[in-house]
């Protein structure tokens, strides 16, 4: 982890609101990821979800306010960490390439069953873009800045 990597991450620090109207390909992504129907419905109905990320020394703290996914996540670039996302244990790792934060996420979805996804976060036109890919299907979220940290 370099100082340049931390600076890229610092550009993404703030409080962001997910713009549900600009979300692309959620239904196809949710189907590919085999998300239960009740979880799909919960995500689609959550229209005022915010995401915050703050610097914490040489690491970061990220948090969503979506019910069931609202615990703070502490992480450092290049180090694996586990969290619980809507009742599913996830092993994660983030790093920086260019002006983007990349990551992988391994979901423990059943007894011995695992599913891997990847993510890419970057700024575009003042918005935080999050592209999530799993099983060959990509979903794109657009977040607008509410408060810069």
Query: Remind me, CATH topology?
Result: Lipocalin
Low-confidence stretches: none
Terminal CA distance: 21 Å
Q: How many domains?
A: 1
**What is the CATH class name?**
Mainly Beta
Which homologous superfamily in CATH is the superfamily? Calycin beta-barrel core domain
| Overall pLDDT metric | 89
Strand order of the largest sheet: 4-3-2-1-10-9-8-7-6-5
Number of strands: 10
Q: What does the largest sheet look like?
A: 10 strands, antiparallel
The portion of residues forming beta strands comes to: over 45%
Amount of helix = 10-25%
Classify the secondary structure makeup into a structural class: alpha+beta
Q: Supply the CATH architecture.
A: Beta Barrel
Shape: globular
Give the ordered list of helices and strands.
HEHHEEEEEEEEE
Total number of helical segments? 3
In angstroms, what is the radius of gyration? 15 Å
